[in-house]
From TrEMBL:
Signal peptide segment: none
One GO term describing the cellular component: postsynaptic density
TM region(s), chain numbering: 21-44, 123-147
Main location: endoplasmic reticulum
Entry annotated with the keyword Signal: no
Top-level taxonomic group: Eukaryota
Membrane association type: Multi-pass membrane protein
Swiss-Prot/TrEMBL keywords: Endoplasmic reticulum, Membrane, Transmembrane, Transmembrane helix
Residues covered by the Reticulon domain: 1-189
GO biological process: brain development; endoplasmic reticulum tubular network formation; neuron differentiation
InterPro entries: Reticulon, RTN1-4
Organism: Chloebia gouldiae
Family annotation (Pfam families): Reticulon
Protein name: Reticulon
Length: 189
């Protein structure tokens, strides 16, 4: 994935970006069932056409090349129980961490963190009023394919300004916490 996002192989990245953008734009205008059906029909049209073309060429040339997708038909695509369990264990670990974080935030273990979440969710109401979910996914797709190469090119300047922003934010939070004694964060023990 990282190779695609950093455009190491321009052709593969362009195909991935174009396909994902077309898929998301299709989902923005059509239902998911319609998009899946059209993608499946397009894929079937290509594979059936290629299969018929190869069969006709073989019949005319009287050759024995065989099935054009033989190498793909012979691939072993089974998932071993061990591999499946390993992936499920990783997902379960991430799910458990996420649930613990949600419990900590919503049950106000740390007031500052919960207030930050509340502020973020309040801001997200405004984002939600302007954009719907699929539009945000389209923007995320575009940003995912443009920001990594830009960051790689201008890494020094971006890190410099991000350091300044972090320092100013830290200073601002310290001033706010000093004014409101109930918001002082607990120091890790």
């Amino acid at each position: 994935v990282q190779e695609l996002l950093f455009w190491r192989d321009v052709k593969k990245s362009a195909v991935a970006f174009g396909a994902s953008l077309v898929l998301l734009l299709s989902l923005a205008t059509l239902s998911a069932v319609t998009v899946v059906a059209h993608v499946a029909l397009a894929l079937l049209s290509v594979t059936i056409s290629l299969r018929v073309y190869k069969a006709v060429v073989q019949a005319l040339q009287k050759s024995e090349e065989g099935h054009p997708f033989k190498t793909y038909l012979d691939l072993d695509v089974t998932v071993s129980p061990e591999t499946f369990q390993a992936h499920v264990a990783v997902v379960a670990q991430h799910l458990n961490r996420g649930l613990q974080l949600l419990i900590r935030l919503f049950l106000v273990e740390d007031l500052v963190d919960s207030l930050e979440l509340a502020l973020t969710m309040w801001l997200m109401t405004y984002v939600g009023a302007v954009f719907n979910g699929i539009t945000l996914l389209i923007l995320a797709d575009i940003l995912a394919f443009t920001l990594p190469p830009l960051y790689e090119k201008y890494e020094v300047q971006i890190n410099h300004y991000m350091g300044l922003i972090r320092q100013q934010t830290k200073d601002l939070m310290a001033k706010i916490q000093a004014k409101l004694p109930g918001l002082v964060k607990k120091k890790p023990e």
